[in-house]
Design a protein that fits this description.
Shape of chain B: elongated
Number of strands of chain B: 3
Strand content of chain A: under 5%
Number of strands of chain A: 0
Strand order of the largest sheet of chain B: 1-3-2
Oligomer: heterodimer
Order of helices and strands of chain B: HEHHEEH
Structural class of chain B: alpha+beta
Strand content of chain B: 15-25%
Distance between the termini of chain A: 85 Å
Distance between the termini of chain B: 31 Å
Helix content of chain B: 40-55%
Number of helices of chain B: 4
Order of helices and strands of chain A: HHHHHHHH
Largest interface: A-B, 25 and 18 residues
Radius of gyration of chain A: 23 Å
Radius of gyration of chain B: 16 Å
Helix content of chain A: over 70%
Chain lengths: 183, 111
Amino acid sequence: MNDSLALERRYRRLLVWFPAEHRREYGEEMIGVLLASTPQGRRRPRLADAFDLMTGGLRARLSRQGAGLGDARWPDALAVCSAALPVTLLTALAVNYLWNLLPALDFYGVSDFYLPALALALPPLIALRYRRAAAAAALVAATWFWFLLLRVTRSVSSHPRLSVALGGASRNPYGRSGRHGVT
Amino acid sequence: MTNQAMQEPTFLILTALAAGAQHGYGIMTDVARISGDRVRLRAGTLYAALDRLRGDGLIDADREEIVDGRLRRYYRLTPSGADALAAETARMRSNAAVATRRLRTLGMSAS
């Protein structure tokens, strides 16, 4: 296949991050600019360009949330959900990794809860723009949340500090009142 | 117009259009030239900014051309866009003047 055609097809796929309105208004122009600014012979968009289209598209969607809540559309909503979830996951994993590199910040496995917290924060953000998709997104996030929660509780026993903290409390739940009783 | 400082990409886009109407790719290369290659706008950022600036009435679509089968739309600065650019330039100049004076008392120069 022709290089520039393959490149154009990939750019068009990335433009899905933008609201349909924005695509109708600027889509063709953007394709022209993207192709003009990409070195000859490339078949794939540069990572920085791809990232820029994603963030630019999400920003355009969020900035329009007040403009038209009524025109919620499933294809757009699904595009955002299916893309936002892996991005969130990768971000959370990166944060988790950094957290492990900086032991000073690692208190009681707080990073284990970062992921579900993000998963819960995402649907309301999407719901601002897509009311009809919000229910589906919340369902996905909730499933994810419980899946992770189960994993975290299972790994508590193998997490030294967290198990000490929880284990200490549960092993001797009446420690304080017991001492009070003696004095 | 608010009193808040203009974002640098916005300032550079308006500066690019102060030279006359330009199309998207032209704005992109001009912004890189003005900023000495320090600010490189990518398409996603550029068109999010153009859409916002059009919404705020600072720029407007000028004319359209078809080059090699591709749409090229030119954008131009509106009178209120020129006002905003002038106000921002004055603000930056006055801040820079104070900074330059104070640096001089430290025996330094802003080069």
